[in-house]
Amino acid sequence: MGRKRAENSEPRRRGRPRKVTPAPVLTVVATPVAEGTKPSASDRKLAEFYGKYPHVVPGSVREPTDADLKALSHCHGKVCTVRCQDCGAERTINLQDAFQSQRCPKCKLTAIKARRQERRAAREAKRAAS
Ligand SMILES: [Zn+2]
Q1: Extents of the domains making up the chain
Q2: Rounded distance from Cα 71 to ligand 1 centre (Å)
């Protein structure tokens, strides 16, 4: 007397193989907004600003404090904190300077020197070739 099939073995399925649905991709929302409230124009502008300048520390845009005013040579309007893309040092700058302040003064100088040297090397290579 032979057993027909083991009790715990999976029954054979007929027809098309089962469809495998991929896991849903979770999208990270940059600024969570409470239900029912629309982001204001200034909120949207700020989110755009942070998206445009990744070196600006998120949430650092503010009215200047006394310490900020002391650190800046000139100040008009809001300030923000930026992180140097090379060494990671943080410093406070005027908001309108964000587009040109990806590096701290030290790294900026290093980058300028490196670029200059690169150009000179390229120029000399060109001269040697001709
Ligand atoms: Zn730096």
Answers
A1: 41-103
A2: 17
CA of 39 to the centre of ligand 1 (A): 34
Which has the closest alpha carbon to 94: 58, 69, 126? 69
Instruction: pLDDT tens for the chain, 130 residues: list them.
Output: 555 655 666 667 677 777 777 777 766 656 555 566 788 998 999 999 999 999 999 999 999 999 999 989 888 899 999 999 999 999 999 999 999 999 999 999 999 999 999 999 999 999 999 8
Residues 6+ apart with CB under 8 A from 95: 61, 77, 78, 79, 80
- What is the distance in A from the centroid of ligand 1 to the CA of 68? 19
Which phi-psi region, left, alpha or beta, contains residue 27 (left: φ > 0; alpha: ψ -120 to 50)?
Answer: beta
Ligand 1 mean position, distance from CA 42 (Å): 30
Report how far ligand 1's centroid is from the alpha carbon of 111 (Å): 10
